[in-house]
Amino acid sequence: MLTVQFLRPGGWVWVELAVLVVLLLLSAFMSGSEAAFFSLRPRDLDWLRDRQERTPACRRVLQMLDRQERLLATILIGNNFVNVGIVILSEFITSGLVDFSDSPVAGFVVKVVAITFMLLLFGEIMPKLLGAGFPLRYSVGAALPLYGLFVILKPFSGLLEWAAVRLNSRFQPEYTLSIDDLGQALEITNGHEPEERSILERIVHYGHVEAVEIMKPRLDVVAVEGSVDYNTLKSTALESGYSRLPVFEETLDSILGVLYMKDLLPHIDEPADYPWQRLLRPAYYVPENKKIKDLFAEFQKEHIHLAVVVDEYGGTCGIVTLEDILEEVFGEIGDESDGKEELFVRQDDGAYLFQAKVQLNDFGRILGLEEGYLDDVQGEAETLGGLILERLGRFPLKGETLVVKHLKLSVEEVTNRRIEQVRVERVG
Q: Does residue 176 fall inside a structural domain?
């Protein structure tokens, strides 16, 4: 049977109770400060920076946040010292007020429960709710006394900070997230609209795409020979509808420069013998394996919108524009001057009629093929036409057919040593 005997409080008990209240307030101050300082939002920090010159408390808050590890160490050291004091003092007070000599185990349990409840409620939960609820106001109010503790405990908190940094650098694992990891994560998410998902997928693979994959190939490049007269140039520029035209000498492998239509407009009424070549700007060259993320950064830095893509021998492969890069992420960007050109048409018998220039990754998405389905057969090819050339090893004739991994590819149209259209059927 539990026997409890209350004792008459001595004169020192009231002093001990007063000290206990002070220690509880200090514990609450520390806990609330921890919650408040580490709950500050970016806009709160902007508010503090605007007032740091004229308000010492704001300045002290920012100074302590510059050393967050040391600030946290200061709060933890101070709070632990205070909590130890609360536990010891509570033991003295309860021993002086209540006699548990007949039931020491029960007395121990009562003391633990009472002290734990007191510490959690008044020293942790309530002050942290207050600090997290009003982080800016609490931080500014606590800044000056906490900064004093920040300075006083510097030898201890500095040592703890140093040890924490060393341990983190030694044992913290390095987390690396590959493009494949991002792609797999995207595959298992279902909270996006189809358009959003398409953009996210393009962004994931954006870093691996090379200029040769998105460029306008050499045969499709609209360019002008540098020796034509001014009237011929204006006609070509008007028919092309482009704002920039490469200018070459004899062949596209010898680019003289790039003509900007905005440079041409002030001279639109000049005669046919006008020396328009003086308006050319230098061409910007990139290798065909240039990553488009790097090319985009260069376009921004150099303030240009068009680059000439060259192969390893210096020959012109094609051109790539800023619009091409943006379309790789956001999809087709059309304007009123763009002609409507479908990359494929679904025919009545279930077959597809593709433009041969369609990229193989787009080709696979349209047909619903697994990612990488054609990797083992495409070789260096990037387009559907390139795949046919890769598999045949020669230029095909119109009507020629081949089967590639359960896909029957029929060459429907050939012009100027170039495959234009391919009919695709599933077989097997």
A: no
Q: The pTM is what?
A: 0.46
State the amino acid at position 145 in one-letter form. P
Task: Tell which phi-psi region holds residue 405, choosing left (phi > 0), alpha (psi between -120 and 50) or beta.
Answer: left
Give the number of other Cβ atoms within 10 Å of residue 397's Cβ.
8
Range of the domain at 96: 5-171
Per-residue model confidence as pLDDT tens digits over 213-254: 888 888 888 899 998 999 988 888 888 888 899 999 988 899
Question: Residue 376 contacts by C-beta under 8 Å, 6 or more apart in sequence?
Answer: none
Using CA atoms, how far apart are residues 332 and 326, in angstroms rounded to an integer?
Answer: 9
Q: Are residues 30 and 151 in the same domain?
A: yes
pLDDT on residue 376: 84
Neighbouring-strand partners of residue 249: 251
Number of domains in the chain: 3
Is residue 377, in this structure, part of any structural domain at all? yes
Residue 199 belongs to some domain of the structure: no
- Output the furthest CA–CA distance in the chain (Å, rounded): 119
Locus of tokens 């054609």: 374
Helical (H) or strand (E) element with 249:
strand 244-249
Whose tokens are 């990229």? That residue is 359
